## 1
Amino acid sequence: MMARRGLNQRDLRAMLSTVFFSYAFFLCCFARDTITYPSVAIGNDGPETLVSAGERFELGFFTPGESTGSGRYLGIWYYKSNQRIVVWVANRNSPLPDDGAAFAITDDGNLQISHRNGTSYWSTELESTSNPAYREAKLLDSGNLVFGDRNNTLLTTILWQSFAHPTDTFLSGMNMSENLKLISWESKADPKEGNFTFQLDEGRNQFVIFNDHTEHWVNGESGDFFSSERMPDRMTNFLVNTTGPVPHPKSSNITLPPSDYNNTRIMLDVEGELQYWKLDVDRNWSLQWMAPRDKCSVFNACGNFGSCNLHRMLACRCLPGFKPASPESWRNGDFSGGCSINSAVCEKNDTFSRLKMMRVGKQDYKFEVDSETKCREECLNNCPCHAYSFVKGEVNKRRDRQPSINMCLIWKDVLKDLQEANSDGGRDLSVRVAIADAVVDGKSGGTSRKKKPLSLIVGVTIASVIVLSTIFLYTCILMRKKAKRRESQQKTERNAALMYGTEKRVKNFIDAEELNEEDKKGIDSWLLISVLMEMENL
């Protein structure tokens, strides 16, 4: 009986030892994705991390790649990516100064980053609970850190999740509502909240990037000739659809499941540029789209009544009939103040400057119209009306189709977000000015000429004729001198050839005949006289 009891004790010890080492081996060789209470915390001075079950994301402490300081942050990044791509940062505004901090569930039931000196650097800030044992945090394969309460049941109540508190990156599973914002990093080395914010303006139902409190970029709308570029439909669906099939942008009959977006992300970078990235088959991230794509794509880059053109040395300039509101600011490269009109409008002598190939912000209203004359009168008779555009309907040659409608677009508010389209997507815009400041059929930005007085035109014409006549006479004299010089040179060459040929013939005759010395002298004299006579005849 005693032997059996001793054997059982040895077996029990062996079994417990096996279980202990197996558990230790499991912890060492297999990454965990969950934090429970109480458990070993994740420290910022060790290699401990959380890795999602499918090994897509990893959570741990890190130092930004370009940082020169010692600050440490708790973040989430793509697991085993060639370059660490951080998608979420907990303590972005409160970096840890040194080692000695840990990430764990505290006694009051919160997730918290605590320093050994008792300082809290980040917390979920939930109401305290007397029973934190049922609380757990789990890193999902979507990149979402979920903190919940099992409440002694198989179901977990989500109390907090990182997807509701993003930093600068949007992932599949998030929903860009009015309460959700992406905030850029301060710099590539500092995840602190920066100057740029991306969010949905539900009042206008448009996505907007703000630079502090100023609009930096606004998602464009289809139709007419608005200046801002539109976000791709696929990207829009990604931002607002997180459940159910997503309509395919090219066909209403094809749908894309939400899982199709698992390898995509949207990021707001430190310069305020919204970037849409996709992971390709080679596991490399490729940039699919970005905005604003250049200086002129920034909302109202040149201010009110200022137009933008990247092909000019100075991108911004005022519309014809307008001048910089602050000349000093413009000289310093700050065009945000825009332009002011040279002469007062809403007078009897108002007219319109026609600017070609323009893009402009959305009109205040539009209506059907028979001709441009009525569109012009509508604007002229309603003050303030700053501009109009007559959009002529296309003529349909097929009899089974109705002709499209002519439209009149009216701008009563200030003109903003103006761009010169050059050869792509622009239309004529007629801007109201005083008659002294008008240009007719000019290119955008006042590049056309004003009507010149008749005396000035006549004077320029006469001066041009005199200059051209002088050039013509000088050219004729120069050509005549060259001709005479060429003729003289040719005559000299002929004379030399003649002399050489005559002398040669005479010498050949003397050598061929048997002549005495007296005869040869006579022939030499005759040769000289003959040559001179031939030269006289030339």
## 2
Amino acid sequence: MDQIIHIHSSFSRNKFIAVGCDTYSSVEGSLGHSYATACFSLCDSKDSVVNGSCSGIGCCQTFIPKGVRDFNISVTSYNNHTQILDFNPCSYAFVVEDGMYNFSTLDLVNLQNKKEFPVVLDWSIRNKTCEEARMNITAYACKDNSACRDSDNPPGHRCYCLSGYKGNPYLSNGCQEIDECEDPSLNQCISTKNCLNTVEAINVTVQRVTVATEEKAEQVVLLKINYHCGQNLSSKRKEPTGQDVSKIAIFVCCNAGSSSCTSFSSNPYWLPKSVWEFNILRNHKIEVLNISVQGQLRISIEAAYDCYNEAGNITRRARSILSVPKFPLSYRQNKFTATGCDTSTLIQGKRAHTYATGCVSYCVKHEDVINGSCAGIGCCQTSIPKGVLNFRASVGSFSDHQNVWNFNPCSYAFVVEEKAYDFSVLDLADLRGVTKFPVVLDWAIGNETCSDAQKKPETYACEDNSICHDSDNGPGYRCNCSDGYSGNPYLANGCKDIDECAIPSLNLCTHGCKNTPGNYTCYCPKGYKGDGRKDGIGCTRIKKSHIGIAIGKCWHRRYSLACCKFLVYLVLKERKLIKLKEKFFRQNGGFMLKQKLCSPEGTSNATKLFTAEELKRATNNYDESTIIGKGGFGTKEHYQ
């Protein structure tokens, strides 16, 4: 039976992007109701634009909402590009598959003559859920060894092959079984011998030994120079030495078992010059939530808001402002976010140059909004550029919230740590009473690169078993513990060796594990051979001869009469077998063949005569899978 196919723009695989330095662009259309979202891109010189960055300086981007069936894109300019005409005469806007466009400063001229971009559409079967579709088994699209999943870009459903199968779930016998044993990346067996392919699963025939250990929590000390957490600094009122000032302090004490940190109230020269500026946060009464040794400083700042009454008059309004001259906003861990159904917001400030970006959030009714979605319907979001040391966020309305006042009287805008905020339709009323949000700042040591800092060992901050990384968000450098170590790289002996053997998830050993400085080695127990690694050949039991086993047993039993008789029997049987092989070798012209092969008249490509033991080893004990014509390709083994 023919199926009805529904097609929508993919919200998870497309982005709306605008390019230009004097650019405002919007995308609007329908998804059962009207929607609209937008972004701003501004810059005053080509030097302020960064290749690959689409955070509002030369390039901006935002998400596509769910369920979009059509869209109309418009792009305009604030000042007709008059101030930037020499390097950016045009603005561009387009929807493109995420990952298929990488912004370049060359795009500011003419988009490098690109006229078309790939866009992903989602399709689904009919307009029924899986549960509804199964009620009509003759029309049900999912075939054998497949399952049904409701479309996340409604309406309809889609089919997919079950785990352990691959292929086309819409065809009879379209989902074919995967032989996981043939592909080492699909199984956890030590070797193909130990793997048995089964329907929908893998059976591993080798037992594994798991060592359970109790993990130990370790207090990370975030202080250096000559202090200890909790020490009374007032008793050490002295002029700091050059050595004191040269060392890096993280200027807080964290209470054991608590994430709360408090700054020292000591004279600022007790801190090294590279971090004296931390006092700026205290002077501006900025709340510090946490400081990490990985180079992040978490603070709390207030949101901007714009509220109206039913008549459309402003009842209250505020901006969100932050200025931290030495601590740039983390462009990786923060997002600029706005909530509201009649909302236009702008964030602007200075890096090396002036920057500005923003987004638009629009919706008609409460039911249009989706929890967790920040794609322009009730909530919009954009990235933060690199190197931002200050910002001013403001928020406004198109229609004074008169059309949405009954469920959304205010617009809000704020910078927030990306993982710390999840949009809810409840935020449209009053942001659930939240007024402050966590923001991540990046900190680094001094203004030098690693290569320059390492030339001055008396001031170099990275201690033993650590490595140096140049900051990617402003000047300076940071230290990290080397691989195989953890702790505080700014403390003497602060990076401690990790015992990978004590934590099963950190090693790949099948049996024995030995910890080494910064690493570990695997080994096999007595009676086994191999490298002992899950990603290697593992461990296999060493085969012993029958005579050796018998001798061992006899020795253990102090040469009992029965044991000795049995040993003599085995020795005679083995000797008889050897003589029988020699007899057959002589009868079948073995010596003549050997003499012919060793003759100087033979060529350099003379055939080599292999013993039975060598043939057994070369053919993996005469494994039938190595026979040519029966699935094998033969074997080749070199002998000296």
## 3
Amino acid sequence: MLFPTKNSTPRRLQSTSHLVDKINRIMCKPATHKPKMLPAFMLPSFITPPIMSSFFQGPYSKRKIVLLVFLASILLGTITFTTLYTFHRGFRRTIQFWRGMAPLIAKYKYVNFKATKIDHCSPDELEERLNVYRATTAPKLVDLILRLGGIYIKIGQVMSTIGQGLLPQQYVDALKPLQNGVPPRGYDEISRIIEKSTGKKMDDLFVDFQKKPIGSASVAQVHKATLRPKNDGDNPTPVVIKVQYPEVAELFDADLSNLEIATRLFAPENMEVTKSLRKRHENELDFRKEADNLRECTRDMQQYGVEPSLVRIPRVVDDICTQHVLAMEYLEGVSLSDAIKDEQDRVAKALGRKDGDELKTMLASKMREHFENGGGAGEGGMQMLGDKSMKIMNVLGPSATTLLRTYASVRDGIENAAISVVKFGSKLGRKDNDVGLIADSAVKKKKKINVNLGRALKTLVHVHGIQMILSGTYNADPHPGNVLLLPDGRLGLLDYGMVGKLSPKDREAVARTIVALSDNDKAATAKLYRENGYKATLQNGKDDVDDAVLHRFASFHFDKIDLSPLTLDNGEKMDIMDVFRSNREKAVPTWVEEGRRLGGLLVGVSAQAARPISLAKEWRPIAKQALRKKE
């Protein structure tokens, strides 16, 4: 079939014929032979007959061929993009990630470039501009994380924990709400997942199922429920039901690929950390593995005498244990993140401040100063502030924190008692028909969180030291939202989806490193790192970095946050952040990779609670015990 010529063009399109002729004159050389015609099946159906007859007929100059190939490429690319975006969730997620992330990266690069290359700002002026950038982009970053969900929420939770005093405070504050959960899914979707995964109806499984979840996290959400008894006369069993979101596994690979690209562009020095996330999160997607982890860690902790005396790990309910749904024992308690916030709010009010936000900002600043002076165990708590409004702290010393917290607790008790009297008196003074005049919500009683936070943190650090160094199987994700403070003072350790395992050889390397760090033996620490497979290079290309550099790296991994200037073996002093920026890790053994994540979380939780620690000193007795067993 030949395409219509100009003479056969319908009347309604003849008005465009002069434009078609013009295109032909521009794009085609005069024909000296009979034009070749393209068959109709090679042309898109939406191209109108006049253009087809004039533009696509021969002869084909190089310019026309190039243009045709260009148009065909655009058409094919548009069709491919539309198809992938519509039907491939991983591709669509990639586009959504970069649509949100690219403007943040571009703006960061622009602010840096303009300040340093164009305006030639001083370091203080640059930091001021970056603070403005962070204040505007931190909420956008959290919104992006919430929209994407999945692994991005998990990363946000970790960064909000280990970043206290290390990352810009704007980001830490913006990410911190992720520790307590994320917006949950609706009951209809959750019930469909449960029924599909178990093969049973909700009414056959549960006597009661609370539609509102008690927690929602990166890959799943948790509901309180009561199991239907198997036999007549049995008591119903209260449990929690953990339900995995259906799209998490499908999007896992796309999420980590996007994260690796973003890290390469934004912070290439962290590439090894990002790559390790892929392996760490794979096992989290099968709840049957989490059930095995719960059982194994419970047995180990009972063997070492800390479960159930110091901690409680929820028992698995075997009746409901599938890849996407897991039933566990219900533990009543308050999350560690809530306890930290409650203490800071109470102390802030005792100091005459409205809430803990101002106090947290001041603490973050003081914590940063503490890290810049070497970090490690120091004066824990609010006496770190030392401002004029807290002269009592300077007079009384470290014991002032205990007194202030006691005062804050007593003040809360007085307030609650006064509220109770007001409510009781208002009820006595009302007639029955006046009940609705004064709402109980007008005088709410404050929720009491009566815990010894310092002891709870000590227990958390101690138990995870036993898990990593003695047992070799440990919870790799003890952020504050995964720790409960039980009414009797014990800890409830939740969420064993991410569990690390170390071989006896790796555990020995960790133990020896802990002892060397607690002794401040730089040569021994550096030797351990070299002999056990850790390799790094600075930008100068030197493969064998100084003992002082390796010791500081190990300190960050297994001891404390130390931002003080680094003195090299030759006496030269370097800013530690410059060292980190120039460092490229060439080989990271498993025990270092696993240890620095767990160590970073524990040090970060303690810093968040204004109780900085030296992890090496806390774990030294455990390390010594492990090494004695080897002898």
## 4
Amino acid sequence: MASSAAHTTANLPLFRRLVSEWEAASQASQPTSQSGKIEPSRDDSFARRSGKDILVAFRTRPPLPEEARCKFTADENIYANSRMNEEVGPQATGAVAAEGGTSEAPEPDLDAEFCPGISVPPGVDGKMVAHVPGMKWNGPTLSHKVFEADLAFGPDAANEDVYNRTVLAQDMINLALGGGVGCVLAYGQTGAGKTYTMESLERRLALDLFPAAEALSARFLASQGDQPGQSATSESPSSVQECIFSFSVTFLELLGKRATDLVSPSAGDTADGTAPSAKEVMIHENKLGEVRPLLLESQVHSSEELQDLITRSLAHRRTSPTHRNATSSRSHAILTIRVKNRMVPYADEGQLILVDLSGSERYEDNKAHNKQRMEESREINKSLMNLKECVRAKAKATVEEEAFVHIPFRSNKLTLLLKPIFDIELRQPSKTVIIAHVSPHIQDAAHSVNTLSYASPFKMSPPKPTGPVVYNSADPRTWNHEQTVEWLVAAFTNCALKRKKGINRQREKAAKALGKKIRPLDMSEPVDLAVRVEEFCPAPMTARNLGRLYMNEWVEKCLQTRADVLKGDINGEGDADQAQTDMVKKMAVEVYAKFNDLLSTARYKTQHDMMATRRKITAKEVYGEVPKW
């Protein structure tokens, strides 16, 4: 039988001794060497892109000074004091590290010193142990439950370590700059440190985003023969990223089904000092299937502007006192950074989505809530359960290619906003990191077990191949080097033929205006390819290697290996150079889209076939059978 927080506090000396004995035994059985901090390199190696689409991480924070004494005591006036602090104003203490933490409170008489409820075994990456107090007929007991994830961060791990091993190691910045979608979700009990982690990741990402864009812009311009800063739109030649990328930012707060804009000035205080009710923002799919709420999109041009916007938006987020946290976030905060490549305007926008989820609560946490707080807790838990189903289904779909997996992302406003990472019909590459936060206190062990049980099933490993790969013309993952080159030659040849037809139509139109005729187009004549395919895909590179390229890297590689195919098409040397550059970029994006479409279809073949069958059935129900002539 599980032990209550009050019973656990009463038996702290016993549990502290049992935990110490377990830690001593665990250290004796583990190897003495430990890897320590991992600092991934910042190069564009393929190794960082061969990981999983969904990464699961556990994190526990360090306990705050006097936190155990303030939180876990029989004095029921603590919650009343926190409500009083809401009216007077919270004190700026070190409680920021616990997502608001606790404000100043009277010193209780009960001895409730800290006892660890979570441990990260040394030398073992990705494991976290929860020490769960219990009660049997012969007295208190302590069980040790092990949970596995891809990463596990103990109380000594700094935010810099979390950033390096999640956002940086998963290459999310380059993914977004290349037209993909990167998402970070922070989940856990209220007061477990989610906001502390997410605010740090947001500010750290803001510092790295623009330098990465500058480096990529300089490389991209060099590949097409331009000098860095030559076509920059700003007065400063060093602002290279302004001519290549544009960044727009939105910050949304979601409470139940009601969404508000955190960036809009209407979300702040009015002139008389009262807080107005922010205007509700509707969340729905448009005719193109996009989910773009009518939020204020702010254009940012530097790390300082982005950090300032994040700070101002977070100040508008709603907090309320609860039994566990005096300044608990009662809503989901979703920061979205959209990236547009101005040099390739017809390419997809990249996105970085950072979600600070509202804290989950058990009955013991919300039994003192009023009617409004109870309704908030109900909506929060409902949205978190929908998110769990979607993440688990997406993780399953990435490893079980032969099974149809339904991802119910339209069942809740939160998951609908995260459609770019859940909808397998979309062709954009995506990566998701879920950081499950747990409290370090043994009194919260029951809730920590629920949190770890929630996130642990998301960790899935793809099945290992059981035999030799059989060639399939529709699956690029089965191609060798020769087959990859053959497909690339055919793809670029089709693009060249389309361009040849377009030029011929223009000439026919011009000749017709002059009352003349031109020779019919001979499609059997060989065409010159815009890209030297053997240099674009040198041996022993295969389609698997090309599949790890981002869109901008694919275009950059095409520009570096382009061939002169515009002889005689355009008069003027400068115009010909610019026209060839534009033509190569357009063809590169078109071939990249076809290649990724093949990859996506091959990975989710069963899902795509099932959806295509459903669309045919729907068409028959609406329009009837197609008549046969």
